[in-house]
């Protein structure tokens, strides 16, 4: 199955032709902002140099029907996560057990409870999500479906680079036609992707709903995130297309400089009122090294600014919630339209608790006996945290039963592979690849739904043998789908 799923790809080209495509790809990337910052040892001073982003030379074939199925799921997921974020009973039941063994989740949960008690100053929340999927071909089936890897409710990245990679591929396909007439290489098969503009549009709409024309948007950026360009593109877009100013702050700066208006709970920083607080960071414990960062989180959460995400949104974006939703009957409690619930459930891979429940004990046994079928995940974001296959048994044996409940177990999805050529640090690498599709979602709501939209897509591609999928972590490249 895996070898024949996408035959005759990538198109056969002479070495000379490949080399000219390589040059075109590098120059197009450098001249159009499809770039990343180089590692420190290669960088010029003042962050003044870039290199082309890791990309695939050709778009990767992706089944058209399945692509649109994934797109259709997005508004349903957007609404589901909004509802969950407002369901106190659900959050308490699912998260409380994890807080006992996971300090990061515990700190978030404490803020959540405190705000719950004090009263929420801002009923509107903004979600800029990304739902990630791998292709799966069931045994004896000829068609693939998507299985969800995870749903991101905070700091969904790569919105601009994914758009730009699609544009690069449009250009490279036109160029390739000059020396190869493959039927597959149709520009029309590259779907439009509005990921570059959809996220800033969502922020702009939230800003408008906040209703103070003189307010500004605040982006929380820390550490590595300062080097990513997607947050800059959001900034350019907000200013150029929506005339909204944006300030960038770290959590430590917010702690030092931010205050709340005692009457209105408006968040004030640099004498400016903040309409929207957009977290392009803040998803991991290491981004909260001291009490200052947590104080800043609390200050923001208490404020009237529209948060993207709220702490509640962040909590329902955990892998634990994903696992609980997959349990029999749970998803169906929150997605009451049966057709929608069925569609979402069809995208769930096998997910299991690893706690002390009887299901948890059974999952431990299963994982010890057949580790090659699974991945074990802690409540973390940002890549590099999961434990794969043969590494699972030693980990399970090392940790206590209560520590186990901060992890979940998931079936390893084995997508069909295809051949493609990737371009990384100027060099081409050919090989068996697999792709992961991300669909962006934009949601604004309070008791009502105000905006519920699909926000474009991202395709990341990596070598067949690589477990992790992150681009920033160096495992994957940015790609775009060629719908077949
Ligand atoms: P993170 O929040 O750190 O990004 P993910 O759940 O997205 O964690 O996992 C990171 C990567 O590991 C994914 O991008 C994917 O490539 C791979 N991965 C995660 N879950 C699975 C799975 N069930 N089957 C196969 N690969 C997986
Ligand atoms: Mg991920």
Automatic annotation (TrEMBL):
This is Glutathione synthetase. Mg(2+) binds at residues 150, 152, 381. One of its GO terms (cellular component) is cytosol. Belongs to the eukaryotic GSH synthase family. Its cofactor is Mg(2+). GO terms for molecular function: ATP binding; glutathione binding; glutathione synthase activity; magnesium ion binding. Binds 1 Mg(2+) ion per subunit. It catalyses: gamma-L-glutamyl-L-cysteine + glycine + ATP = glutathione + ADP + phosphate + H(+). It comes from Funneliformis caledonium. Substrate binds at residues 130, 154-157, 225-227, 231, 280-283, 460, 471-472.
């Amino acid at each position: 199955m895996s070898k024949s799923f996408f035959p005759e790809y990538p198109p056969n080209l002479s070495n000379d032709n490949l080399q000219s495509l390589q040059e075109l790809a590098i120059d197009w990337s450098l001249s159009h902002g499809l770039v990343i910052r180089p590692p420190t040892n290669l960088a010029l001073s003042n962050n003044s140099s870039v290199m082309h982003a890791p990309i695939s030379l050709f778009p990767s074939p992706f089944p058209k029907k399945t692509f649109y199925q994934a797109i259709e799921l997005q508004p349903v997921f957007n609404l589901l996560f909004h509802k969950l974020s407002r369901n106190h009973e659900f959050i308490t039941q699912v998260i409380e057990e994890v807080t006992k063994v996971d300090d990061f989740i515990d700190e978030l949960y404490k803020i959540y409870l405190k705000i719950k008690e004090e009263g929420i100053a801002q009923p509107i929340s903004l979600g800029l999500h990304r739902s990630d999927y791998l292709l799966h071909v069931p045994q004896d089936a000829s068609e693939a479906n998507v299985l969800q890897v995870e749903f991101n409710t905070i700091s969904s990245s790569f919105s601009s680079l994914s758009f730009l990679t699609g544009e690069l591929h449009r250009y490279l396909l036109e160029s390739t036609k000059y020396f190869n007439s493959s039927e597959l290489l149709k520009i029309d098969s590259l779907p439009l992707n509005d990921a570059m503009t959809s996220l800033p549009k969502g922020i702009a709409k939230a800003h408008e709903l906040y209703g103070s024309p003189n307010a500004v948007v605040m982006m929380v950026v820390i550490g590595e995130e300062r080097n990513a360009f997607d947050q800059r593109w959001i900034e350019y877009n907000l200013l150029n297309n929506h005339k909204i100013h944006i300030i960038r702050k770290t959590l430590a700066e917010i702690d030092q400089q931010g205050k709340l208006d005692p009457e209105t709970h408006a968040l004030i920083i640099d004498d400016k009122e903040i309409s929207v607080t957009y977290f392009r960071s803040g998803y991991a414990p290491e981004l909260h090294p001291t009490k200052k960062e947590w104080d800043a989180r609390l200050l923001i959460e208490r404020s009237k600014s529209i948060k993207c995400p709220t702490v509640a949104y962040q909590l329902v974006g955990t892998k634990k919630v994903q696992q609980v939703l997959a349990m029999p009957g749970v998803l169906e409690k929150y997605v009451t339209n049966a057709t929608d619930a069925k569609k979402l459930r069809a995208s769930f891979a096998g997910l299991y608790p690893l706690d002390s429940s009887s299901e948890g004990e059974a999952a431990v046994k299963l994982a010890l006996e057949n580790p090659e079928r699974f991945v074990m995940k802690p409540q973390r974001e940002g890549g590099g945290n999961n434990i794969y296959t043969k590494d699972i048994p030693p980990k399970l044996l090392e940790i206590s039963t209560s520590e186990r409940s901060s992890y979940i177990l998931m079936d390893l999805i084995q997508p069909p592979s295809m051949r493609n050529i990737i371009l990384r640090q100027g060099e081409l690498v050919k090989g068996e690849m697999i792709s992961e599709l991300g669909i962006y979602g934009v949601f604004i709501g309070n008791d009502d739904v105000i905006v519920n939209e699909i926000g474009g897509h991202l395709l990341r591609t990596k070598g067949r043998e690589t477990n992790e999928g992150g681009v920033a972590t160096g495992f994957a490249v940015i790609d775009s789908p060629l719908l077949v």
